[in-house]
Specification:
108 residues; Glutaredoxin; 4 helices; 5 strands; 33% helix; globular; protein-disulfide reductase activity
């Protein structure tokens, strides 16, 4: 597991995401999801580059169903960027590093 990417749950979502001092990128994923595994190393790289500016967290949609349902997560991987406790932007599906950093930069 990464030192920069935190695994969160329905129970920790409010503290880890909604009450965070800095923007939080939530990766909604599942163990069986091949595209989710494909984006994981890209998220790892990006988490190091944005350290101190952005927190990246992962939420397993199989183990945690309350929060994904609340935010209407239907496909995975879905990345949702939260700022000041509000979902500010969303991207569904795998993307390359350039696409991911462009998405982050345009929203933080």
């Amino acid at each position: 597991m990464s030192e920069n990417i935190k695994h969160i749950s329905d129970a920790s979502f409010e503290a880890d995401v909604l009450k965070s001092e800095r923007p939080v990128l939530v990766d909604f994923w599942a163990e069986w999801c091949a595209p989710c595994k494909a984006i994981a190393p890209i998220l790892e790289e990006v988490s190091k580059e944005y350290e101190g500016k952005l927190q990246i967290v992962k939420m397993d949609v199989d183990s945690n169903q309350v929060i994904p349902t609340k935010f209407g997560i239907r496909g995975i991987p879905t990345l949702v960027l939260f700022k000041n406790g509000v979902a500010a932007a969303e991207k569904v599906g795998v993307m390359g590093k350039a696409q991911l950093t462009a998405f982050i930069d345009s929203n933080i």
